Amino acid sequence: MLRLWAIAPKCMKLFERSSDKIRTHESYETPKLVYPRLYKDAILMLTKLDGTFLCRVRLRNFSTMELDLVRPVGMLSFPLFEDGEKLAVTGSGENNLPFSLSGIVTVSNRVNIRLGSLALMTGTNQRESPRYSVYRKANIYRPELVNSAKKPEPCDLIDISMAGAKIHSDEVYAEGQTLKLQVELYERAGKISFMCQVVRVEYDKQSRNEYGLLFEELPLAKKQYLREDLDWLAEHAHC
Length: 239
Hints:
Layout: E1 11-13, E2 37-39, E3 43-47, E4 53-62, E5 66-70, E6 86-92, E7 98-108, E8 112-120, E9 132-141, E10 153-160, E11 164-169, E12 178-183, E13 192-202, E14 209-215, H1 220-235
């Protein structure tokens, strides 16, 4: 049974099981179904049910019955789909947990796609993207600023996964803001950078602000690079 939860103006938990109990941090260590908390303006991936990538989409609005998807900045037009066609949307929600939702096309035009009859794709909603604690110095760049590359803003990278990262920073960023994160995950690893979106903010006047970052869909080569770095971190975690 689905229940709608109002969590905050820009986010809400879309699905919940009536038998769910309060989840502790330890509960994330065991693979389990992930019921996503979605964020307005989040960038998601539209795919076929077999996982074939179709395009990136921006989440304009949502409910337990429907996803309302529009073009991300810079995209000219959507491909067209038949009414009733089944598609999937994938992304990351709270704590960068990956999720996939299937839905049936109810509206399809060059600027708007709507999916109804939503369902969790349970075979893919596993904790497939574990977080690795790193505590590394990193830099944030703001793409909207002129000469952004010359104005790095230092931050501390707390943890990272294939889907996103958590940072602490003295700077103030807004939920939904696009940033560029650059970091060297361990000595002599080489620097790697990610375009990302702020999906969670915790402002703290007494200490540093905390931000959850969702990575853009990574090119295949960068995915492999990051995967190798994370494998190294996992291997040397207890050294």
